[in-house]
Amino acid sequence: xxxxxxxxxxxxxxxxxxxxxxxxxxxxxxxxxxxxxxxxxxxxxxxxxxxxxxxxxxxxxxxxxxxxxxxxxxxxxxxxxxxxxxxxxxxxxxxxxxxxxxxxxxxxxxxxxxxxxxxxxxxxxxxxxxxxxxxxxxxxxxxxxxxxxxxxxxxxxxxxxxxxxxxxxxxxxxxxxxxxxxxxxxxxxxxxxxxxxxxxxxxxxxxxxxxxxxxxxxxxxxxxxxxxxxxxxxxxxxxxxxxxxxxxxxxxxxxxxxxxxxxxxxxxxxxxxxxxxxxxxxxxxxxxxxxxxxxxxxxxxxxxxxxxxxxxxxxxxxxxxxxxxxxxxxxxxxxxxxxxxxxxxxxxxxxxxxxxxxxxxxxxxxxxxxxxxxxxxxxxxxxxxxxxxxxxxxxxxxxxxxxxxxxxxxxxxxxxxxxxxxxxxxxxxxxxxxxxxxxxxxxxxxxxxxxxxxxxxxxxxxxxxxxxxxxxxxxxxxxxxxxxxxxxxxxxxxxxxxxxxxxxxxxxxxxxxxxxxxxxxxxxxxxxxxxxxxxxxxxxxxxxxxxxxxxxxxxxxxxxxxxxxxxxxxxxxxxxxxxxxxxxxxxxxxxxxxxxxxxxxxxxxxxxxxxxxxxxxxxxxxxxxxxxxxxxxxxxxxxxxxxxxxxx
Length: 648
What we know:
27 helices; globular; single chain; seven-stranded mixed β-sheet; alpha/beta; five-stranded parallel β-sheet; 19 strands
C-alpha cells in the first residue's frame, strides 16, 4: 500500500491583518488596502470577544475610525486618547496586543479599558467617561510648552458628551486656541441626521487648506469693512456652514473649528478629512463622525442595546452563554423592591446616571416610567436634581455605582448632607467587581460617606436583608441615607414578601460563640460563616454579628462583643477609613482598647487590584474565609499553616 503525504493549507480569515503588528506596518500599506484591514479587524474583534466577553457594540462601531486614525496619524508619537476606553478593543489589536486579545478582562490578561502601563499606545487610562478632552488639552499644552509638533487626538462618544466635564474642557480649549483634535463619535444619531455624499464633500472642502485660507482672508478683509457689512458677511458665512453641514453651531461657539458630520464607516470620506485635519496648523478642531454601534454584526445591530456588553457568545447565532443564576442579582432585587414600595407611595421616584439596567432602575422604569429619570452621564446633576425633588416632599432614590458617585461627591456634601435632605442613595457595585478591575471597584464609599454628619449608611448581607433596607430608606424622611450592595447574585436565601423597615442603627447576632467575634458589614457575612466553621474545627468558639449599619453604629451590640470576646475582627468590602475605622474610634472613645481586647480591622489592601474573577480578587485581598481564619490565628500569635497541618 502506498503512503500519501497530504499537505493541508490553512487559510487565514485575516491575511492582511496578520501582517500588521504595529501601526507602522499599517502605514506601509496602500490606501486601497485599508478597507480590507478594517473588514478583517472587525472579524477579529467579533471572534475575540465571543471568547472573552466584554464591551462589544461600541468597539464594532469604531473599526473604520480606529483603522483610519492609526493610518493617518503617527501613533504613538501622536497621542490618541479613547474616552471611556471600552471602545478600544480594535485599537488594542492594531497596537501590538493581538496575541493577548483573548486574555481580555481575565486575571493577568489585558484590561478591558485603556491603561498606561499596558502600552505606549495608551497615553491615558480611561474607564469612566468624559475625561478625554481634558486630558488631551493637558497633553497639547505640555507639547506647546515643550516646543513639540505632534498631534493630540481625543475620541469621545457613546454617551460621554452628556457629561458636563466634556463641555468644561471644550470651553477651556476654545478659549486657549490650542491645537487639539476632538473626534466626536456620534453612534446613536442623537446629534445629526443621516449623512451622505454632499456632507462628505463639504467636510473635505471645509477641512481643506483652500477653504481655510479663503476664510482667513475674508476675516482680514472684514476688519477693514464697515461694521454693518462685516457682521452681515460673517453671519452669511456661518449660516451657510450651519445650513450645509449641520450640527456645528454649538461647537463653533465654544471655539472649535467644526468639520462634519461624516460617515464613520466610509473610508473614502474619512481618510481625506482626517488627513486635512492632521495638517491644520491651528486649532482646536472637532470632527463629527457618525457611526453605528454594533456595525457589521447582525445580532448586535438588531439588539436594543447593540450588544453594549456581552458574555461569551456563539458567533453564528449571537446567542450569549449566560449561566442560569442560582439566586437573583442584587440590582434586580433593588429594582423589584423599589417597585413594591412605589406601589404604596406615589412620592417615590427613581434616578440614575446612564446606568438603568446596571442599577436595576430599568425594572422600576417599566412600572413607573413617568417617575423614572435617567439624566445621562451626569452624576453631579443627578445628586442635586434628587436634592431638589427632596425639598418638595418627594422620595428620590438615586441609584449610582460606587465609583461613579465619586464624581458627584461635592454635591453629596453641599447639596444633600449639609441641608439634611432625605435623598436615598442606592450604591451599586460596592466592593470588588471582577473583570472591570480597579476603575469600577467600589472601594471607597464607606470612607467618603462615613465622614459626613447625619448620614445613615447600610450594607445588605444578603438579598433578603436588602429588601428590608429599601423599606428602611423609604421610611427615613429627615436625613440622607445610603444602601450599598455588590455586583452579582445573592445567596439564594428565602425572600420576604414585603420589606419591613429596620430599627436605625441596630445590628444582629447571627451565631453565638465565646472566644472570637467576627463583625461583618455587608456580604462578607457568608465568608464569616465559613470561617467560623473552620475555627470551630480548631476549637475556637466564634460569634458572628451582622452590623447592618455603619452609621449610626450599634454601640450596645459592639461593646458587648468587645467585653465578652478575646478577639474582635471587623470585616468589610471597602478601603481603610470605613466601617472598621468607625468601630475602632467608638471602642477607643469607650476605653475598650485600653485592656485585653485584641481588635483588628480587615479592609481592602492599600493598592488598586487588577481585574480578575471576584473570588480571586477577594482571596488576594485576604477577605475570604481563608483570609479571615488566617487573621484570627495571626491575632492569636499562632501559625495558621502549622495549625492547619496539626488539625489534618
